[in-house]
Amino acid sequence: MTNYLVVGAGLFGAVFAHEAAQRGYKVKVIEKRDHVAGNIYTKEVHGIQVHQFGAHIFHTSKKEIWEYVNQFAEFNRYTNSPVANYNGEIYNLPFNMNTFNKLWGVATPKEAMAKIEEQRAVLNGKKPENLEEQAISLIGTDIYEKLIKGYTEKQWGRKATELPAFIIRRLPVRLTYDNNYFNDTYQGIPIGGYTQIVEKMLDHDNITVETGVDFFDRKEEYLKEYAKVVFTGMIDQFFDYKLGELEYRSLRFETEVLDEDNHQGNAVVNYTDAETPYTRIIEHKHFEFGKGEKGKTVITREYPADWKRGDEPYYPVNDSKNNSLYKQYQELASKETENVIFGGRLGQYRYYNMDQVIGAALITVKNEFEG
Ligand code: UDP
């Protein structure tokens, strides 16, 4: 007998399936797309691992999660250090002494602090209540105008004054000459790509995987057939949007193979002006230190897009309106669907990074099997 149905073969579903299988349970995994690995899916093109759904850089400060993921792949020493292109001016990210030096000519942390202090005075000591105020409070008006406003408003399709402050607190601000985008202890890219991680998690005698299968074609039957369902799709869709629609942001990717060795000299270049329609260009070979065929490179332009039903949802929009609607769905779930576990970015409506997805899946595993 199969005990669990996992809907969605992304990272959350794969960790859960793997852990359940290790404990002797039989698991069936169904996936709507024709491949596993969700949005961490990578595919080799001209010897280069191409991130099909946007740049994924693994980073965590949790040793147990780093060790967990290292069971399934060896990681290289990639350190994310994107650069920002603002109308042709190049700045280092995250915001650090290199950025401040290029922008203001300051050389010491003290000079940089003084400049930031002077610029944040426009807030008159007000506690930041939205992304714009949070950004100005962290790094002042110049950086907000050149490196944040345009990018953010393109990415989220709304004014920075209408966005939650937490989004910008994802980025570090540093008074050192350190271009590492993340503060985490561990960081890297899996050698050979991400897809193998999910494939290895799912490669188990107790697991069967079917791709190209849409849960919603047979929802009621599935719920009857399986003692327990782990659902990693959109929670509002699960309930047929009956309390209303949650909002998501979508993305469109334009991938191109170029006949050159090195197109932009970095894995990630952000276009932070308001006019350029894409937010970033990724040159995939730089995630692997130039690996791949000579004379070839693969780049992807990432265009933010509005989301409507039927589009791929990439980001939950965690403002207070959507978060409170999500809470209502959660309450509905706890009342109506005892045998369904909701997980992942879409099931839990949270802007998770990969390590947080693994962490959330392992907590679910613990509650389910040891709780
Ligand atoms: N951000 C920005 N300028 C940049 C990079 C990021 O203003 O050059 C802001 C933007 O609001 C974005 C947020 O910081 O949504 C989080 O950026 P992150 O790189 O974490 O986004 P992700 O990689 O998850 O899309």
TrEMBL record:
Organism equals: Ligilactobacillus salivarius (strain UCC118)
Q: Which domain of life is it from?
A: Bacteria
What does the record give as cofactor? FAD
Family matches, as InterPro entries:
UDP-GALP_mutase, UDP-GalPyranose_mutase_C
Task: State any single GO MF term.
Answer: flavin adenine dinucleotide binding
What are the residue boundaries of the UDP-galactopyranose mutase C-terminal domain, all occurrences included? Answer: 146-351
**Protein name per Swiss-Prot or TrEMBL:** UDP-galactopyranose mutase
Q: Does the keyword Plastid apply?
A: no
Tell me the enzyme class.
isomerase
Annotated PANTHER family: UDP-GALACTOPYRANOSE MUTASE (PTHR21197:SF0)
Entry EC number(s):
5.4.99.9
The family note in this entry says: Belongs to the UDP-galactopyranose/dTDP-fucopyranose mutase family.
- GO cellular component term, pick one: cytosol
**What keywords are annotated for this sequence in UniProt?**
FAD, Flavoprotein, Isomerase
What gene name is given for the protein in this entry? glf
List where this protein forms a coiled coil: none
Alphabetical list of Pfam families matching this protein: GLF, NAD_binding_8
